[in-house]
Amino acid sequence: MSDPAMVVAGAVACLGLAGAGSAFGTGFAGAAAVGAWKKCYAASRPAPFLLLSFVGAPITQTLYGMILMFIMLGKTSAPGAGVPCLVAGIFAGLAIGLSALFQGRAGAAACDAQAETSQGFTNYLAALGIIETVAIFAMVFALIALGSIETPKAQSPAADAPAALTLGS
Known about the structure:
single chain, 169 residues, mainly alpha, Four Helix Bundle (Hemerythrin (Met), subunit A)
């Protein structure tokens, strides 16, 4: 028997945990960017707009959580999908959210370094990209696992019609 409430709970947990990680990550990086810009203004140097790249990097993990959420919501009618979707939602969401959190921490350090030296932008983005890869892996592997949950096939209206009805009989 299907338990759609547990499927929905897993989907919401996945999005919530991924989104919470994005909120923490963008918050850490955003605060560092503001501090770095303040130092630039205090030294009468231009504030680098590039720092917004580091601030915005952790937001993509919310999208990964949303993708998984929509896939899980498509499993509400699948028999036995409740517990697997709940477990997948919690653990995939946690992995994705932690990736965003730590990407924000690294983004904060990148903000400080870029504003101080005006060098290393590509290296900093590469480090953030490696951290992002953890979230992508978690999403893809969760998608593979969720793909093993069979959803019932929808019947066409013609399949419901009695087979013995023919014209002229």
